[in-house]
Write a structure and sequence with these properties.
CATH class of the largest domain: Alpha Beta
CATH architecture of the largest domain: 3-Layer(aba) Sandwich
Mean pLDDT: 89
CATH superfamily of the largest domain: Bordetella uptake gene, domain 1
CATH topology of the largest domain: D-Maltodextrin-Binding Protein, domain 2
Shape: globular
Strand order of the largest sheet: 2-1-3-10-4-11
Distance between the termini: 81 Å
Strand content: 15-25%
Low-confidence stretches: 6-10, 23-31
């Protein structure tokens, strides 16, 4: 083997690198850039039209469209477990994305046998939150949280629920158990909106749902907010007491606002996730989007990409904590 004098070979490499640099730079963008999106994007909402999840998706869609530069079309795929399962097996090419409540996904996986793993979804970032609220009929006998005991002294309190395992219904169970108030479920509703209609008709006593789902009934004066299922007051429901004001412990289970996030199927590439995250951040910073959220009972809530997985993990941990209580009292 021929030996090169010291310093000659490194000099040759440097010369070759300099000579090839323009070629490498010219080809680098073609390697690094992903041509996405080039066509319409489908935004999956795993609930029926009319509720909080639907509002969360439809309020974000036009702003994602604005900043992605392509149409973003909302598709309702209900019920949630079905929608989540189909979504989990969607092609991870960025043309199927979703807006989902982390609590809804975690609840379904905690209480049911499902094929998907929500922690493995490509969570992008959160965008909106809406408080959990226990509503009563404004013209009924339950005008305050304490009035629940008066009704319970005669019969179990009737809870309307489209799903016993929705995050807000789970929170309602935890609360009534803590206060030792007997209750019974009225179920079979196709979504939160039909359940709220049943409340106004006087067919059930209370409903634990989101402000986003009950906002129209609350603003019209038909529904009364008797408890805010969180520790902090919310200016959108100024008359509703918080957990502490009702003598409840916020650490007793999943008791907090329902937060929605942009999500992509498992296996979505980092490049596509970054493009979605960029468009999503521009959307949540858009003043018009913030104004739209307030109209439908939401508050801007942004957890960035680098922290969103921990947010998901915290929700799963909270549901594992409350699981024994719920399963012990729900047959």
């Amino acid at each position: 083997m021929k030996n090169f004098p010291v310093g000659i070979f490194p000099a040759f490499v440097r010369s070759l690198t300099i000579a090839l640099a323009p070629v490498l730079i010219a080809h680098a963008p073609a390697i690094a850039q992903v041509k996405y999106p080039t066509g319409p994007v489908e935004l999956v909402v795993t609930f029926a039209p009319g509720g909080a999840a639907d509002s969360a998706g439809r309020s974000l869609a036009p702003y994602l469209s604005k900043y992605l530069g392509v149409p973003v079309v909302v598709k309702n795929v209900a019920p949630p477990r079905t929608g989540e399962d189909i979504f989990s097996r969607s092609k991870p090419d960025g043309y199927t994305i979703g807006v989902m409540a982390g609590a809804a996904v975690a609840s379904d996986e905690t209480f049911f046998k499902v094929r998907f793993r929500g922690r493995e979804f490509a969570w992008i970032a959160t965008n909106a939150s809406t408080p959990g609220v226990i509503f009563s009929n404004a013209k009924g006998p339950i005008q305050t949280f304490d009035d629940l005991r008066k009704v319970a002294a005669q019969r179990p309190v009737k809870i309307g629920a489209f799903s016993i395992y929705s995050s807000t219904t789970v929170a309602t169970i935890v609360i009534l158990e803590e206060k030792k108030i007997p209750y019974a479920f009225v179920t079979g509703f196709k979504g939160a909106a039909p359940a709220m209609t049943s409340l106004i008709r006087g067919e059930v006593d209370i409903i634990g749902t989101t402000l986003g789902s009950g906002s129209a009934f609350y603003k019209s004066g038909d529904a009364k907010a008797i408890l805010l299922i969180q520790s902090e007051p919310d200016p959108q429901v100024p008359d509703a007491p918080t957990l502490e004001h009702a003598g409840l412990s916020p650490s007793s289970g999943y008791l907090g606002p329902v937060v929605f996030a942009l999500v992509a199927p498992p296996g979505t590439s980092r490049e596509i996730r970054d493009i979605l995250a960029s468009a999503h951040k521009k959307a949540v910073d858009d003043p018009m989007y913030r104004s739209q959220l307030e109209k439908v009972g939401f508050t801007l809530s942004y957890v960035p990409p680098e922290k969103v997985q921990q947010w998901v993990n915290n929700i799963y941990d909270a549901f594992e904590k409350v699981k024994p209580t719920v399963e012990a009292h729900v047959k």
